[in-house]
Amino acid sequence: MAQAQANIGVIGMAVMGSNLARNLASREGNTVAIYNRSAEKTRAVVSEFPEAGFVASESIEDFAASLTKPRTAIIMVKAGAGTDAVIEQLTEVFEPGDIIVDGGNALFTDTIRREKAVRETGINFVGAGISGGEEGALKGPSIMPGGSAEAWETLGPILKSIAAIAEGEPCVTHVGTDGAGHFVKMIHNGIEYADMQLIAEAYDLIRRGTGKSPAEIADIFTEWNKGELESYLIEITAEVLRQVDAKTGQPLVDVIVDQAGAKGTGAWTVQTALDLGIPVSGIAEAVFARSLSSKPAQRAAASDLPGPSSEWTVDDADAFVEDVRQALYASKIIAYSQGFDEIVAGAEQYDWDIKKGDIAKIWRGGCIIRAQFLNRITEAYDENPGLVALVTAPYFTDAVSQAQDAWRRVVVAAAQAGIPSPAFSSSLSYYDGLRADRLPAALVQGQRDFFGAHTYRRVDAEGTFHTLWSGDRTEIEAVDTH
Ligand code: 6PG
Known about the structure:
Number of strands: 11
Radius of gyration: 26 Å
Structural class: alpha/beta
Strand order of the largest sheet: 3-2-1-4-5-6-7
Helix content: 40-55%
Shape: globular
Distance between the termini: 67 Å
Bound molecules: 6-phosphogluconic acid
């Protein structure tokens, strides 16, 4: 039997797992136990990174015995059935009070289920969203743990030691109980999808509108990264656009097949939003844009469909680029506003006490959507914790009102040019819908009452009403719906 000597363990030695284990090992006071289903992989990691001083085990029993109590293990395996299998193994060798952490991209409802089942054994189960890709895992990710307050007491200092630091603060907080951490990570990914799609639309409009090359557009993004749009995604976009393909000498972006993949977290965000009744239209359009791109047969069949009959030209390229920048910023605010709406609705539905300002804070560093403007979100929720929509906070209202004329010009231009801009235009429609005095939803209610007696409410009286629509009988009756 191995002797207990490690204070934290990692299971799963694929790149995210081994990088996280190396990150843990590099922090003062940590000794890290590792385990992988195939022992060969474990041995390879031990010999590749001797400086980490890993305590390696080739059986789950030895792995458990190598951990000091309360035992704490982070599972870093592909989300799904593999996670359940590892949890089952661990619950057999762990004891009440020990902590199992799932650091994969699990669906939060799976995490709720697993937490409930594991809790019955007296072992703590924590679903923790970890963002930042391979580099983040190694150098400092943003971490979104759920689970019990008791588990957080042990886990908090360990996670704080490996998280990214933003403005002196570690990018980790106890998000809420059971599945709260994975829920918030899911929303992070939904926002990530929207942000990426918006940036892609901005690139496409500039390229097709001004004829600038990818390298020239890279310079524009580098410039944008010095202002209010400053973010990791803008930064890497410039690098992607600047990349030249070694084989052909062409911009790499031109030789990459234009069909975007997806592993599912964006779709989960939208599916959950539909269940919660939250309009996350920007995120949904981003998910659908990837789906549309990945339908080659349909795209080929439709490629001869007519576009605009008149030619579209951009007279002033610099002014157009600036309009696109502003449209991007305004649409991005909408995407975050919608994402936070979903967090609020999820917290209410699942009884989580999620501090929105703290979530914005832990997204400032380490994660894929890290951005300068997350500070503004934290400030908005600090000023008004009950803020009903992020976009109505003074800073964001100002930003959107300054950008809106440009935003409208860009959406009009895109429609005239026949350039798809689903995220830009749906974000603008959402904004106009939200600020409208009257919506045609009144007509929809009339239609529903006409064909299905679904009833409606009146602007001038309390209660529920139904109109007798047929023939001459246009009188109205109050309906007791109780
Ligand atoms: C992160 C990323 C990470 C992963 C995405 C990619 O926060 O580090 O979000 O979790 O790269 O899930 O998702 P798609 O493959 O669906 O684009």
